[in-house]
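During the reporting period the student researcher (J.K.) took over the structure-prediction task from the postdoctoral fellow and processed the backlog of single-chain submissions. One of the processed entries is reproduced below for the supervisory committee.
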Amino acid sequence: MKRRNDDAHADELQSADVQVMARICWAYFREGQTQEAIAQRLGWTRKRVNRLLNDARTSGLVQITINSPIGAYVELETKLAQTYGLRRAIVVPTPADTADVRPTVGAAAGQYVSEQLKEDASLGITWGGTINAAAQNVLRRQGMRNTVVLMCGGLAKSTRINPYDNAAIFARMLDATCYYMTAPMYAETAALRDALVNSEPVRSVLDMARRVDMALLSATDLSEQSKMLEYGVISRDTWQSLRDAGATGDICGHYLDADGRPVAHPIVPRTINPTLDDLRAIPERILAAGGLQKIAIIRSAIRAGLAHVLITDDATASALL
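J.K. obtained the following C-alpha cells:
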C-alpha cells in the first residue's frame, strides 16, 4: 500500500504544473493565505497543497531566510566589532563537526552578499571552500546588472574548490557578468609573473579588482590542516619556509605576519594578485573565515586593514576575544 502511495505521489509531482506550484507558493508565503483556502480555491485537497509546498522547499523553488533583529550571538558580535574596530561582526553557530566550519560560515557570507550587494555593484572574490559555500548560498537574482571579478589566479590542477568554479557559481546566481584572472595563482618565475601582469587580459582584470564595490575574502591558514597543503597549492617545503618567515597565512595571496605586515618570501614576487593597497581601497571588505586553526590569520587580516565585516563561527569568535 505504501509503495502504491509513493508511486502516486511521484506521478503527481511529475504532472504538477510548475506555474501552478509557483502561484500556490506566492499565495501561501507572500499573501498569507491558508492551505485550506488555497485548496478550496483550486478544488484540491489540503493534503495535496501541503505536499506541493513541501516539494517547493526541497526543490529550491522556495528559499526561506530567517531575518531576526536579535542574533543568537549578538553579545559576541558586539564585542568583536568593538575589540577589533569592525563595522560589523556576524557570528554563526559552530557545527557539531568542528573540523570543517566552512559550509556554515560560507552560508552566512552568501546571505550577507545577497542582502548587501546593490544593483549595478561589483563583487570581487578570492578562492577557497568558504567562498564556494557562499556562492552556493547566495540568493538568485536577475536583471541587477552586477559584476563578479575573480581577484586571484587559477590552479593548474583542479580541486574540489577551484577559483574559476567559485566565480562561475556566483555569476550564475547573481545573473552577473563574470571576469576571470586568466593566469595561474603563482607564476613559475618573477619575470613570468611580470609578463603576465603586463598582458592585457590580466592587467584589465587587476584594474577591475581595484575598483570593485565589495570584496568577499577568505583566509588560508598555515597549520597542519591547511588546505594549501591538502590541495597541493604549495609544497610542504614552501609551507615550512613561510612559517619560518613568520607568516600566519594568506589573504588573496598576501602572506601576513602576526602584526598584519607582508612577509618577505620567494613566493611573493611570483604571486598574481591585487596589491594590499588595492584591497584596502575597496569600499566594503568582508572576511569570511572560521575554525580555530585560522585565529592567527584572522587577526593578521584585521590588523592589515583587510576587513570591515567579519563573518565567523562562535567558537572562533570566543577564541578571538
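The committee noted the following: The CA atoms of residues 159 and 231 lie 7 Å apart.
J.K. will present the remaining backlog at the next meeting.
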